[in-house]
Amino acid sequence: MRVLVIGATGYVGSRLVPALRDDGHAVQAGARDLDKVTGLWWHELVDHVEIDVLDARSVETAVSSEVDAIVYLVHGMARDGFADADHVAAQNVARAADSAGVERIVYVSGIIPDVPEDELSAHLRSRLDVERVLSASSADVITLRAAMVFGGGSTSFELMRQLADRLPVTVIPGWMRHRVEPIAVADLTRAIVGALEAHGGTCHFDVGGGEAVLYPDLVQRYTELAGTQRPQLNVGFLPEKLIAQVASWVADIPSPTVKALMESLQHDMVAADSGWRSALLPRGAETLTIDDAIARALVPLDGDDRRSQDPMRGWRSDPEWAS
Q1: What's the average model confidence in pLDDT over 231-250?
Q2: How far from each other are the two terminal CA atoms of the chain, in whole angstroms?
């Protein structure tokens, strides 16, 4: 299968491309900046295609008739007004896919809590909107809804890591005491590969690692494994915007991204079921535990042999703000 990965230089995309190659797919690595593609160790193994999802003509050119499937990994949290941009980008991709006769689109979204839609964070409302736009195309659209993606260099993991490592006390307001079910990036990429050939039409799966824990307990497990234990201070109420602002000052991650992720902690982010395992993974396949995922994410880089790196570890091609 010829697969176009839109957002190939992002965190999930950079780990996905070699996984697709290992599974026998021909891959087109799509990115707005092709210089970033050449900075990845696998760049000589795949085709490169320039694509700006906000430019309809650029998308039409990249999504040629030779593409069998698209993996869509673009999210605009790092800038203000991301929801409108995400909507336009999804429309461009859906229209181009229809025109080219693309058979399948796999989209990685966020877990949608069981609450009224107007109570969702702006980040999750945008993810749901993109899912709906893509699903209206003629292709079979498989949406994988994930909560926190764990691995060195992952935005959500790095935010937790940087706040836990840099603050002398972890302040836990009442609204943050919700459950979260992380998934290791190695398992997420396996789910994406499986979704490309899964039976059935347009649908979504909640993809989780199988362990749902309170967010403060997750932070504590991280600090225990990292050897950076901090006391936790439970407070009845602190405004979400205040906590998000402080977090954006402490962390190196772009401020709009920090605020969007912090806002999503106001609800449980837990998979509704585990059906994705039987539908998308090989029979008997195991997923990484939280502790195993953290331990592998904490292993530092070693030398220059990037081809042997574990996808769970940080890569030299990850953003400069990653630890």
Answers
A1: 75
A2: 35
Indicate if the pLDDT at residue 316 is higher than 50: yes
Please, are residues 298 and 226 in contact by the beta-carbon 8 Å criterion? yes
Band of residue 78 on the pLDDT scale cut at 50, 70, 90: low
Backbone φ and ψ of 91, nearest 5°: -60, -45
Structural domains of the chain, with CATH: 2-308 (3.40.50.720)
In this structure, the strands spanning 213-214 and 179-180 are: antiparallel
Instruction: Specify the pTM.
Output: 0.93
Strand order through the sheet with 2-6? 47-50, 26-31, 2-6, 69-72, 104-110, 140-146, 203-207
Supply φ then ψ for residue 224, to 5 degrees. Answer: -65, -45
Closest Cα partner for 275 from 172, 191, 201? Answer: 191
